[in-house]
Amino acid sequence: MQIVIDFALSESRRQLDEILLGLKRDVEFELHDALAVHENRLSDEIGSGVDVTICDTGDMVNQLIERMFTRLRNILNYPHRFELVEGTDQITDLLSEAFDKVGESLAGLHQENLGETYVAVVINGQSSNVTDTVTWSDIVDQPIIDKITKLYREAEMKVLAICRRELLYLGEKYGKPVE
To answer: Which domain of life is it from (predicted)?
Structure first.
């Protein structure tokens, strides 16, 4: 027996939204923190009390998070067809693939990408001077990627548990227990 599940309409939607919203907030925090650390490092390198600011940090973070969340959102916002007998394995595979794509996005941050160059600005009193450009590969190092990956893996386990419970519930409701 096959069942079509649209997690966007399921009874578990509120729980899924809470997990993904929490994940988004945590990842945003880590990225903004990495940007602040990089700004401080640049300020220290220049010295003499000069304050360095990276322009458009909010846009940088939003763009990166959007890129990472697109696959997850697609899985949880559109219907999928599952076999009731093999549904838990299919859900596991589907979610694992989506979260693996996030890992690939994070790994790609170490590579230079000329399409994502942002400007660092030195603030000198009333005037500002463009001093350098930075990309995510300049800002994000392996410990930050490891932190973010850990956040995604924790969220993956929570989402997977909710989706499995939903499938079990639907299997029991329609008369075929899920293995």
So the answer is: Bacteria
Tell me the three state secondary structure of residue 129. strand
- Report how far apart, in Å, the C-alpha atoms of 149 and of each of 36, 43, 67, 158, 176 are: 20, 28, 15, 14, 36
How many other CB atoms are there within 10 angstroms of residue 109's CB atom? Answer: 21
What is the model's pTM?
Answer: 0.78
Q: Which residue has the higher pLDDT, 144 or 1?
A: 144
Q: Residues with Cβ < 8 Å from 34, sequence gap 6 or more? A: 139, 140, 141, 144
Task: Please report which residue ranges of 78-141 form alpha helices under DSSP H.
Answer: 87-107, 136-139
Q: Residue 68: in which H helix or E strand, if any?
A: helix 57-77
Q: Please give the C-alpha separations between residue 57 and each of 16, 64, 97, in angstroms, as whole numbers.
A: 28, 11, 29
Beta bridge pairs of residue 127: 124
